[in-house]
Design brief:
Layout lengths: L5 E7 L5 E3 L2 H5 L8 E6 L3 H9 L5 H7 L7 E5 L2 E8 L12 E8 L2 E6 L4 H12 L6 H33 L5 H32 L9 H67 L14 H22 L4
Parallel strand pairs: 3-7
Antiparallel strand pairs: 1-2, 1-3, 4-5, 5-6, 6-7
Helix pairs in contact: 4-5, 5-6, 5-7, 6-7, 7-8
């Protein structure tokens, strides 16, 4: 990255390839018919200054490109498009649901993308341009970028769906204390992803109807397909969240059933030993007149009587289908 906050500068040759420029070369007029792509890190003060004073964009557009935590949206301004999207965070040590914001300005001869954190979709486009298989113009760039963003969203949503499958299988065999945190994490991830993907669906769907001359019918058709993909991902996230909730309910029911079974056994044991405890308590009081005090057989007789009473109670509970 250059000291002025320009991460990269490319010209698009119209056939899928391009060449990388330096900031000095950007100051010179690019060849006619070759759109230029400028990728900025808005965390650099010089990048902000370039946008404000040298980009030629309106104050409203610059403010939108530099806004903190903007929601995904799209807006046509003259023959240009302001698009704000989010991509899955694939940076080391980061959570995928902590989605990275990408702000984009597109017009027929120029593309400006602005980010704070690295985004893998941008690197994909750079690699494709270097291989001669990248976007040919501004409309193609938008299609490529949306597609690359959705590829990684699809992978993340698929991973959540697989995790939901695993947790549904584990609810039968894994202890509840181990499963509860996993279910909670799954629901939080699904909610966090949906927070940005749902409005992104509306933003991409709106792009199809924006009246800009350089957005052709083929571009609009691909954007329509992208909007359908996002709709499917939102539905999958809703399904994963609901499946986690159902699994949580099943786990709670299973734990409640185990608790009820344990309490049932405790109640049966208590019911059997309660009269025995009463008898032994009466025989153990320190007052005169306790029968069998002078008999050497009294202890055996009392013990046998207690055993008979316990067996009789167990038979009674069995006949009444209590035990």
């Amino acid at each position: 990255m250059n000291d002025n906050g320009m991460v990269c500068i490319w010209t698009l040759d119209g056939t899928g390839g391009g060449r990388e420029l330096t900031p000095q070369q950007l100051a010179d007029k690019q060849p006619p018919g070759e759109p230029v792509w400028i990728h900025l890190d808005y965390g650099q003060p010089l990048a902000q200054a370039w946008l404000e004073h040298e980009s030629g964009l309106t104050e409203i557009t610059v403010a939108a490109l530099l806004a903190d935590e903007p929601r995904p949206r799209s807006l046509a301004m003259g023959d240009g498009l302001l698009v704000i999207l989010r991509g899955v965070n694939t940076n080391a040590g980061s959570d995928p649901e902590d989605m990275v914001s990408l702000r984009i300005w597109l017009e027929a001869g120029r593309i400006i993308t602005v980010r704070r954190r690295r985004l893998a979709a941008i690197q994909d486009i750079r690699d494709r341009l270097a291989q001669g298989d990248g976007p040919a113009d501004s409309g193609d760039f938008l299609d490529h970028l949306v597609g690359r963003l959705l590829d990684r969203v699809g992978e993340t949503v698929g991973d959540l769906d697989d995790l939901a499958d695993e947790l549904e299988d584990e609810v039968i065999s894994v202890e509840g204390r181990e499963l509860r945190p996993k279910l909670g994490a799954l629901r939080r991830k699904a909610i966090a992803l949906r927070r940005y993907i749902a409005p992104q669906r509306d933003a991409v769907a709106r792009l199809q109807s924006e009246k800009v001359t350089w957005l052709l019918d083929g571009h609009r058709a691909r954007l329509r397909e992208a909007a359908d993909r996002i709709t499917r991902y939102v539905e999958d996230l809703d399904a994963a969240r609901d499946r986690a909730a159902v699994t949580q309910e099943e786990l709670d029911n299973r734990l409640a059933e185990q608790m009820n079974r344990t309490m049932y056994v405790v109640s049966i044991v208590t019911a059997i030993f309660l009269p025995l405890g009463l008898l032994t308590g009466l025989l153990g009081i320190n007052v005169g007149g306790i029968p069998g005090t002078d008999s050497p057989y009294a202890f055996g007789l009392v013990t046998a009587s207690l055993a008979v009473i316990a067996v009789a109670l167990a038979v009674l509970f069995r006949r009444r289908r209590i035990l």
